[in-house]
Amino acid sequence: MGVRSLWPKSRSRKRGSAMERAESAYANQQYAEAAALFRAQAESGNAAAQLRLAQLYESGQGVLQSFVEATSWYSEAARQGSVPAQARLGEVYLTGLQAPATATASAVARIESSEGQGSLLGRMFPEGLAVRQNTQLAAVWNLSAAQGGDAGAQARLGYQYATALGVAHDLDAAKKWFSAAAAQDSSSGQLGLGMLYAGSFGGDTEPHEALECFERAVAQDNATAKHCLALLLLHGRDVARDAERARALLQEAAAAGQPAAMFSLGELYRLGQGVAPDATQAETWLRRAVTRGHIKALMALVRLFDSGPEPDANSAALLCRDAAELGDPEAQYWLGQFYLAGKGVPQDPAEAARWIEKAAQQGVTAAFERLGALYAAGHGVAQDFNAAADWFNRAAVMGDAHALYHLGTLQMRGLGVTRDAAAGLAGYQDAAEKGSGAASLELGIIHATGREVPQDFAEAARWYARAAERGVPEGLYNLAFLHLQGLGVRQNIPRALELLEQAVASGSAAAALALSEQFTRSPYLVENAALAMQWLLRAAELGSGPAASQLAERLDRGDPHAPAKERVVLLLAQCASKGDAAAQTTLAQWYLDGKHLAQDVEIALRWFHRAAGGGSAFAQAWLGDAYATGQGVKQDLSKAAKWYERAALQGHSGATRVLTSLGVAAGEPPAEMARLFQLWKSGAERGDATAQRVVGDFYMRGVGVERSTPQAEHWLGQAVEQGDSAAMVLLGGLILEDPAASARFPRAVELFRQAAARGNTDAEYNLGVCARRGLGVAPDREQAERHYRSAAQHDHESAQLALADLIAERAASAAQWRDAMHWYQQAAEHGNAAAQARLTEISARQPTSERAGEHTRPN
Hints:
mainly alpha
């Protein structure tokens, strides 16, 4: 019996002695010997030795480093109840372990490949060199270790319950385990409990308890807790704000290498939260956060460079692209906006659409709405109202007010969806209730015009007021005219003027121009030339080209109320620089004549060219004269003909001079016209396409030569064969002049198509005429509108008028009526008398309709 009782004790002493020798070898840095001793004990089932061997494999001390082997031995020990092994397994499986740093990239690749799995290396490491994340397994081992009292495992398990990592979301369980860890003075437990109380994981907030938990973790120098406490002191509710301490805490956490703290510190300086804004400090900390992989810091840098008195759009766009390519959806949306505006990158609607769609695919609601707008306009993507409706629907479901407004417009017009005026109205009302000023304005217009609903000026006034409250100047503008006429509201002239002044203060040039007109000729006010001039000047300052041109006209007339010539010249230049053709032409004429400024023919020519390119028939005819006579430029008959033709096609009286590049006025002797014809014909016979076109035009009009349709077709055909798009337009027009030759009309249409493909806006307009009237093609109102709109968008005055008429004929919604008014105004601003007459007629019949047209159309 005594011998038997001694055997277990003797065996126990041997085992203890082996473990002691292993620990001693490890302490003396004899790692290989220690590993061998630990392995012997581990293989015999000693849990402590299994734990120590796992640690050696993880660190690569005395053995070839292997996370997979380490995990295997941790598992052996854990199954025997080793709490440290269970805790380490919970930690490993929660995050995963990449291949050891000692493993070469080629080894990793070879093992992971299908061929490598059968190789010697693959047989040695059949499970690879990394341990994959497994949150369910992490929860199992963290629970075992947590129940065994391990504070780290308790904190991790709390985090898993709080974030639903491998377990069901359970804030009560999270609180239980965070509290258990915190009770052991674990800074991780205190941090987790503080985040729970702060509402970081959802649920109710208890700011004071959060503050206390964070303070306890901060006392243990936990960098993440410092960051959380700083945010609580900056933004938390029901706690005393302390910006200075928050900054100090963020500084400490950032200095400790906490990327989120670096980001927050950068934002603190960027936004000036409790400190003076400091772009340099902001950039420093945000860049440090970026180098540590904080993508949101990239976007903060984008905002930093995109703001301030001197924004750096190039740097902002470059950083935005970096974040976008890393997959950040917000960055993708911003980059799309940069490409749309041409800010920091070349303007590229197609590239913009590509990035915005990437953001939309990741759930950015604003991208849904913007992408819908791009499809509706055919901007950067092929026009597709079905796709537009789909994207607007997605954004509308998320409560986006802009999308609800646009969707309502599609429903009102039956674009991409079945026309449903009731649904459109409901969409407008929903959008308006959610804050859309555009929808409020649209509802006001609908009630004022009596489209889709009974006319109700009182209801219109209510919606206009709502639009004004949401910052839409047109709401103030339209409401003012209701007060002027006493429609839906009591007539109140002072109130009307006050509203117009408020619209001007909001940036409405149209309101300033309206005020000027009220003090010039109005049935409601006494004429006041000084006030009229004051508001006309304000309209010009706000960018109204017509107002600037009126100022110039008043100055030329010697109006005593006109501002100083220097002021008028500056305003003209500003409007001209923004593309207003009337201002450009006036400025050009002044430079040419040396009126109000030093004579400079070169500058005059530049402005004439810009005005002519923008559609000014006067400027086009003037350039024809200049190139024909060599006034300020080298004489060039081809260029003269080009400009004369463009002016003539707009109905300018200069067209009656048959594109004479020598500036022969109407009424010149026939002999002179014949001489000019022979001059052009000699060029045509030498093969010059422009000359061939001009000769064909001479024959077509019978100027300088007897009229001959066959000869006209011959020479125009010669120019067409050389690709002259203007000749294609002229020849197509000549064919259409003969009603008896309708069988040839398709040939005219084909000529127009060829010219339009070369960018000729006159041809695009003519295609609209053919589609509208069924000349050479089946009548197609939608095709007509498409061609008219394409030419109108390139400032073709006749197309703008035709488009407005076409829309107005069948306008079934306020949006369509507003679209028509927009194009009438565009044509009128180019001096089109018919458009101006229509606007006058509409204004007299229904003032609110005109006001509706001045609102920007939906994207």
